[in-house]
Amino acid sequence: MKPITIVENDKVGLLADISYILSKNKINIETISVNVVGGKAIIVITVNNPKKALEVLSQNGYKNLEEDYFVIKLSDKPGELNRVTLVLSQGGVNILNVHLLSRDGSQTLVALKVDKERKAKELLKEFLAEND
To answer: Is this prediction's pTM over 0.70?
Structure first.
């Protein structure tokens, strides 16, 4: 089951709001991971009814980071993105899309879409934001 990943500005009550929306619609959270980096909250959940969850979250202004993206955390310094792209290239993984989500001067959050997600996550496990 693909997780739902929501990236929002961190604020008090964010998780309460999301969990309320889901519970009000009788959607059960099966797994959850929440990390805050650079003022951004990364909420990764799996639920018993993903289609309905995406619908009700969207209706309430929450967007799912496209299913095939995953988020990595890098030091905010020259060469960090190059280091990651080199690892992927040498591992035979093609990058299809990149989004810079957040920078705070010390850390950078980047969303990646690749052709071999499982392999990419394996190669970049030390950088995965969801593992913090």
So the answer is: no
